[in-house]
TrEMBL record:
Residues 93-329 form the Obg domain. Residues 56-87, 471-512 are annotated as: Disordered. Residues 471-481 have a biased composition (Polar residues). The keyword Cell membrane does not apply. GO terms for molecular function: GTP binding; GTPase activity. SUPFAM superfamilies: Obg GTP-binding protein N-terminal domain (SSF82051), P-loop containing nucleoside triphosphate hydrolases (SSF52540). Keywords: GTP-binding, Nucleotide-binding. It comes from the Eukaryota. The lineage of its organism: Eukaryota, Fungi, Dikarya, Ascomycota, Pezizomycotina. Residues 330-618 form the OBG-type G domain. This is GTP-binding protein. Pfam families: GTP1_OBG, MMR_HSR1. Residues 72-81 have a biased composition (Low complexity). InterPro entries: G_OBG (IPR031167), GTP-bd (IPR006073), GTP1_OBG_dom (IPR006169), GTP1_OBG_dom_sf (IPR036726), OBG_GTPase (IPR045086), P-loop_NTPase (IPR027417).
Amino acid sequence: MNSVPGTLMPFLYPCLFQSTSKALPARCLRLRLPKRTHRDLHRTARVHIPSFAEQNVSPRASALEPPPPPSLTSTATSTSTHLNPAPDDYSRSIFIDKCVITISSGSGGSGCVSFLRDAHISDGPPNGGDGGSGGSIYIQAVPGQTSLHKLARRGIIKAGRGIGGQGKSQGGRRGEDICVQVPVGTVVREIWRSDPSVEEEHRLRELRATMTDDEILALPPEQSGLRNKFVIYAGATTTADRTQVASTLPSLTSSIMKPRRSHLSVLQPPAPITLDLDKQMESPMLLVAGAIGGLGNPHFATKEDPKPKYATKGALGVRIKLELELKLLADVGLVGLPNAGKSTLTRAISNSRTRIGDWAFTTLSPTIGTVTLDNNVGRPLVRSGVPSDHTSDSASIIPRQQFTIADIPGLIEDAHLDKGLGLSFLRHIERARILAFVVDLSAGDAVAQLKALWKEVSEYENLRDREIAAQSEQHGGTVSWSPFEARPPASTANGNGLLNDEGAPISVFPSSRGDKPGLEPLSYPPISAKPWFVIATKADIPSIRGDSAPENTSNSQSTTQSNFISLQAYMKSVEHGTVAHPGGKPNGWKSRIAAIPVSAIRGEGIDRVIRYTAGVLDSLVVG
Ligand SMILES: Nc1nc2c(ncn2[C@@H]2O[C@H](COP(=O)(O)OP(=O)(O)OP(=O)(O)O)[C@@H](O)[C@H]2O)c(=O)[nH]1
Ligand SMILES: [Mg+2]
């Protein structure tokens, strides 16, 4: 059919074809529409609806992305190298370090109303099976993931609901469990939760507080909410039958009506959830247990009513809104002003393909590079490692094969006040074990650059200290993950639970931390107490750029070499304590600090950085 119009059109409508060729002036015919590729056409035709993930991304990231400067777009690709790449030679990974997700545990399946029927038994005893419990949601921090974008895109995570019970006492199948995998270093915080069982308990408590048992018993099933809890026998088809069954339902005050919970729920972390998943987890941790399934009709058989025509519905699942925040864990965090050369250094030192550009804010999201210390077959290129059993026996040293380095976006003045890309990415240096301050020797006074960077870092540290203090006041500290170290059930924790022969309470879930209540809050060393050193880059450039050279300097002083010498002198004075720590903190790390000159673009001086870092990492483990 498609080919017909094309073939017949000139014969059916010859005027159309004549007019386009003759009526239009020659000038118009020469006009050519700009060539549009297939992809462009798609782009214009579609209306862009932002996805959940895009809504989760900080809007600043895209707003701040600068267009590539003309000089770079016209660069011939033939001159590009790994350390001075063409604009398109970088890996662009999606990175999201903060997102909100909603998790829902599965609802339980309903119990079944059924009676034994046989060739010889026409009206047998009840044999309805129980409903299966809903699926639970687990969380696991796994290595190899560096972003939360997959979770941000999913938004809502639901475990499967339990299947209803069946006749012949067949229990329903359990709902499907879900394991949420997050990168190591993710902090999980609860924003709100809706737990129908807790809400029901509250409702019953309120009813009991305002009414007597007789008044509650007298409540019609619609008001007591009983009707919503039961499955009525399908054989009761007429209204009269159903009303008759409803009149036999157990009362709200009976013990069988107490809200039930799945046995897994004792392993849930206490609400509100606050987890710090800073270690790789061998097995998943339960976040929220699935709701329990309903009871089949045999549970309600009594002497008075041996064939109950009702069963209970399964409980509803719990919904929790969680905020996930990723704080990358790297051995070294690079801190530097924009355009200082951090990404070039990361490329030179590691396998990273992070973006490089001669403009500020080339890097918009942190990237982790892995620095290999062996030739990938286990032969060490740099001597590094820690004794396996903390003895000095060199035979028992486990060689270090790699360390990781985080290239984070540049800091500008007042980054701690959330200027530039500051605050959102400063948190990634919080967990780096070593800080490497990258200063550009060709961009003016290196000591002033270092002090400016330290000022931002220590201001951020103050801010964090205040935040952590406020948080621990609210929640009593962050909970660090540890396998099967669940809180004791409330009943045993407050001494009302199981008692031994002497009448003393016994703990069913003994904690490995002795008798301390709850789990200990995480303690990270303050940022200023972390080991740090300076990487003075762009050492290949002979002189300081004209506009950034310090005023009143002679020609000899405006060389990058003299700049480095004064930086080295400053570092020595900090180490000896003659000058205050640049962060202004009394507990600041001062021992064995160094300034290492490098030319990242030529790959010179990189070996020293690797050896120095490996040495500091070794000393951190042994010390
Ligand atoms: N001559 C010379 N140029 C360098 C060196 N290192 C980096 N550059 C150049 O400096 C510019 C900025 O480098 P980047 O590595 O993108 O700087 P950055 O610190 O990552 O910048 P942001 O991501 O914006 O914070 C690029 O044009 C690099 O080619 C070096 O050692 N020598
Ligand atoms: Mg960069």
